[in-house]
Amino acid sequence: MPELFSKFGPEMAAVSLPAWLDLAALMVGAVSGVLVAHERKLDLVGFVGLAMLCGLGGGLIRDVTMQVDSVYMLSSPYAIPAAAGMGIFAFLFPSLFDKFSNLIEWVDIVSVGLFALMGTDKAIVYGLLPFSAILMGTLTGVGGGMLRDVFLGDIPRIFKPSNYYALCALAGSTIYYVTVMVFWLGKPWAAFLCVAVTVGLRRWSLH
Amino acid sequence: MPELFSKFGPEMAAVSLPAWLDLAALMVGAVSGVLVAHERKLDLVGFVGLAMLCGLGGGLIRDVTMQVDSVYMLSSPYAIPAAAGMGIFAFLFPSLFDKFSNLIEWVDIVSVGLFALMGTDKAIVYGLLPFSAILMGTLTGVGGGMLRDVFLGDIPRIFKPSNYYALCALAGSTIYYVTVMVFWLGKPWAAFLCVAVTVGLRRWSLH
Amino acid sequence: MPELFSKFGPEMAAVSLPAWLDLAALMVGAVSGVLVAHERKLDLVGFVGLAMLCGLGGGLIRDVTMQVDSVYMLSSPYAIPAAAGMGIFAFLFPSLFDKFSNLIEWVDIVSVGLFALMGTDKAIVYGLLPFSAILMGTLTGVGGGMLRDVFLGDIPRIFKPSNYYALCALAGSTIYYVTVMVFWLGKPWAAFLCVAVTVGLRRWSLH
């Protein structure tokens, strides 16, 4: 059993989630970017630009706002090639993404959940105050999509009525913070809950 | 008499303004945000989002740009709940804000003045160069409103002709810098002058 | 011969380019900003705002993202006055810029090349990973223009089809990184190559 599972207690709060989760959030975010590029029939630069904006943007907002530790996208040797590579791959094989285009809402919200998780977790690791940690999670969750909307000249969806992205990210971040810091739940379970609540709330809001 | 009033001289430049002024700037900024949300009939997410953007945005731009000391909104236990609470309160009691809606210009410019003050003061405390301190004040002053305009899909007002927000913030920051660093005026008096000049210039420009 | 020319080898990678190059990038960027302000018939605030956005924006994005060393525009005593002064000068003597208005594309791309150079070089000096250094160069190169477009309510040109700014910046940054870090070419020659490739590729793409 990995260390994160085998121990429970306050001292585990400072142990970061495994690095592959950062990469997973990045990849799902990048896919949400290329799906938009696909929808708008952008060129290669647009595909790579949106993959990087949506894959790296949330984490960059997190790291620049918190100003602690390194900037993930710069210090990880995988982050930039992974995001750019996803953009190039999607541009070269657009037909693979045709069948995904009705999944865009799902990909979007899973990406929001994963980024909310990574934002809240970094804030917990660095001992931020509860409200600060939850805000960092929410901001990291919706940040990439907000940047994308602003750069594409759209009004960010979080400022459009009946759109509950931000609330989903807020709920996910809060669940993660409370389960880890109040109930000392193991981080992997709390992480699963965070993403499940974010995605579930979104699905439920569409009914 | 508080310490800030009783002493005069160069050594006082490094003493920050009292923390409640940061909170006051935040609250006035948040009110300017909810008045816009009210005007545009946004939902709860929009109210809270704009309250936080306008209440916390200027200070965040300041802290992220200067990269010294902590990020105010993350290190203060009051900042995030105050901004979010103002958004929720304004959404629940919209009728209270009906009578304020013709005050939106006043609230806006007082918020610009207070943020210009807090931006210039932090720059002075950390010993920035004169032009840098004045730019930080101006940027902090107009930052929240600029973010709001960009996120709402408007062209920021500072890039529209005949709009002198930025000049008012510049004048307020300059007055504060000069009175504190050249004339060694006590910070509370200089702070009063900063806000008065910002608001007065704006009022005068509307004639 | 200046030190940068007289020595070759790995140990020279950590020696920054001379500071006047930062100022040169800033001035060319500021000119690209005032040409847009001129074109749109903005007022003095618009001229100064765009000169500062385009002159200082790219470097600010670089410094805020990398979070190492000081923020150039705040620590240099020349940066802010130079950018603001260019805005004032261009507003006062618009006729001087009439003859430049067909040069706007040239000024833009030289500015992109110079900023890509300064971004990549700072990343090399601080030992960033190859992909990170090249991304920092590209982002610094296109950052000022992206900010300008977002603030003017345009869709950033890098997200419009058939616009190869970002590719030019990417090529320039890559050339600089490879010539300096792989072939240990002297920085001045590599810098020249970086700007020449950025500008040349752009010129070529317009045919």
Q: Would you give an account of this structure?
A:
The structure is a homotrimer of 207-residue chains. Chain A is mainly α. Chain A has one domain (13-205). Helices cover 73% and strands 0% of the residues of chain A. The first copy, chain A, has ten helices and no strands. Chain A has helices at residues 3-6, 19-39, 44-66, 72-75, 79-92, 94-98, 104-125, 130-151, 165-181, 187-205. In chain A, helix 2 (19-39) packs across helix 3 (44-66), helix 3 (44-66) runs parallel beside helix 7 and helix 7 (104-125) runs parallel beside helix 9. The longest helix of chain A has 23 residues, at 44-66. Chain A is globular, with a radius of gyration of 16 Å. Chains A and C meet through helix 3 and helix 4 of A and helix 3 and helix 8 of C.
Question: Could you name the key traits of this structure?
Answer:
207 residues, 10 helices, mainly alpha, 73% helix, homotrimer, globular
TL;DR?
Three copies of one chain form a homotrimer. By secondary structure, chain A is an all-alpha fold.
Could you say which overall geometry of chain A the principal axes of the C-alpha atoms support? globular
Estimated helix fraction of chain A: over 70%
Span between termini of chain A: 39 Å
**Number of helices in the DSSP assignment of chain A:** 10
SSE ordering of chain A: HHHHHHHHHH
Number of strands of chain A: 0
Q: Tell me the quaternary state.
A: homotrimer
The low-confidence parts of chain A are none
> Residue-averaged pLDDT of chain A, rounded?
87
Strand content of chain A: under 5%
> Any idea how many domains of chain A?
1
How would you sum up the major sheet of chain A? Answer: none
